[in-house]
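User: Show me sequence and structure for the first protein, then do the same for the second.

Assistant: Starting with the first protein.
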Amino acid sequence: MTWLNLALVAIIASLSLVFLFSGRPRIWARLRFVAILCFEVGGVLLLTLFLVTLAYLATAPGSIEPSSQPVVTTVLHAAGNTLLLVSVATAWGTLTGLGGAFWFTLNKRRSAAIAPIAGLIWVLPTFLLAIGVQELQAQIYNFTALNVTGGYAEVTPGQVFWAAVVLGIRPGAYVFRQARVALAEEARQDYVRTANAKGLPWRDVARRHIFKPALPILITSWLISFRLMIGSLPLVEFFFAYPGLGNLFLQSCGIGSSQGMNPDQAIAAVVIATALFFILEAAANVFQQLVDPRLREARADPEAAS
């Protein structure tokens, strides 16, 4: 009942914020993210509790594994590992995706040769990419007798590197494609033509009149790519036996593990992963408002937005 109580408290807190402050636009503009976060965490917690309970009822009593160590300690340790993996994957995916799109725009290069490759990476399932990377590891070992896997079921630089490559490659391809479209659209605007006509250096034009106006759209694309990353997290961690939240959730459900089901760990892993994502989403929305005053005014004045 503890998880149910937490879910109800989160939903009640969200509804209370709505009823108390939704009629005050200035205050609501600052509290709406908290209300959305509480509601979404409560909803995800209820759904996860429902699904895990169904799995629990369908499982033989002897296969239910009691917690041998505190759930909080286990989940927080896995959360730290996942945070490291996601940070590395996000950094390299953003660098290759947004960085590549910025580079093509700054240098007035066409991405005709790169776009099909990005499209191919985007449509490939994550498990095929994981299998491809593991096959590459095997071929490197066959030709050089060098083990580059980084170990098994542990956090090492090599393990983080390979798992981050698979986790960040599809989001990076998605960000590149969306950023190229957004930047190309901004480059066709009249104010860009005017700046060019004045003889301003192209790099200054790109930074001031293309990159900055496109930032809200680029942040949205990046956030969508992060959703893709979180969705692929359990699969990637399972393939590489990485001891993170995704792998802990699967093992707690009795998947790929000789241990039995551990409902408390499964629910806690989902809750922590969901909370991390929603906090990042709220931070990205706040950053969007900082770089685009129009969004900030629309949030603070609903009548003007309508």
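Switching to the second protein now.
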Amino acid sequence: MRRTASALCDLLDDGFRFILTHGNGPQVGNILRRVEIASDELYTIPLEVCVADTQASMGYMMAQCLMNEMVSRGRAELVTTLVTTVEVDSSDAAFQSPSKPIGPRMRRAEAEHHKQRDGWAMREVAVGQFRRIVPSPLPQRILELENIHGLASDGSLVVCCGGGGIPVVRDASGQYQGAAAVIDKDRTTALLARQLGVRTLVILTDVDHVYLHYGQSNQRPLETIHVQEVIGLLELGNFDAGSMLPKMAAAAEFVDASQHPDATAVITNLENARHATAGEIGTRVVK
């Protein structure tokens, strides 16, 4: 996070202001593994509470590292972490078709053990290696949206919507209840960016560009690409569900629905964040 903070503060030095979201898959898996190991002595922790826990702990680390980096540059700003709740639809088809891997990889015998004892849905992610999969419903509403907007409007740097948000469903009487699911962080971030009316959505990942035919002899980077072309590529199944599909879908959703005439979504790696916001590298989705 210290390395990430340095790259993000470069953007502040360039005049950008940002709202920071993040993933939490490995950290949630870590908590669930600890729960499993201690299950003979301690109570279990529901999946949505794991999301809440990691939002707070990771937000604390991000805020501290960012503030310390700013101090080293002669800036003194507060970074606020907001534990964020996101409503999902209880009738979302994702609840019937789990797809989001969480937790560590395991061998077949261990996977079968969890399937029989705990009712986990499992998926083979590599030959002989399995992971637990959980529902990943689409985000419908960010409950703390106005709070985020207020903090950002007052000049605060905000960390929010960690891990896609804590998933909750609402019943006919208006009561909320946690859902055992993980919302895709990129889709929630796109929803947040769209509703706040920001100009630029930046998705930081492991590669400098999104590639067509990635890893093959004919791979090619996507540079500046219009949103309708992205939608066409998505419909043709050009991106892998476990990597670039949610990122490209989120980028397309943001640009297509944004009211900002210059709405742009940028996908690149951390090392190139500064160059990507300057339009020098990365995949840029535009209207």
